[in-house]
Specification:
The chain is an all-alpha fold. It has 3 helices and no strands.
């Protein structure tokens, strides 16, 4: 499957015009439209990974044992 991604700013709420497409005349294509802000999963994943790295590097996190983490999870799940 050949894929093509492009970005544009909506200037007419009733139509989107795509030009210079890398497909042949008569070739069937599937069109899916996402708002750019909502289709930013890779950036959100990168931000989460960075947050986890920062959190794991905190001195407090370095002293946590697996047992400490398990007790904390159990307490949270039981509503304590």
């Amino acid at each position: 499957m050949k894929a093509y991604r492009t970005y544009l700013t909506i200037t007419d709420q009733k139509q989107i015009v795509l030009s210079n497409m890398p497909f042949r005349v008569g070739e069937k294509v599937e069109i899916v439209v996402f708002a750019a802000e909502e289709n930013n999963r890779a950036e959100r994943v990168r931000q989460l990974q960075e947050l986890l790295r920062e959190t794991q590097s905190l001195p407090q996190a370095q002293t946590l044992s697996e047992d400490d983490i398990l007790r904390e999870v159990e307490a949270y799940r039981s509503g304590i």
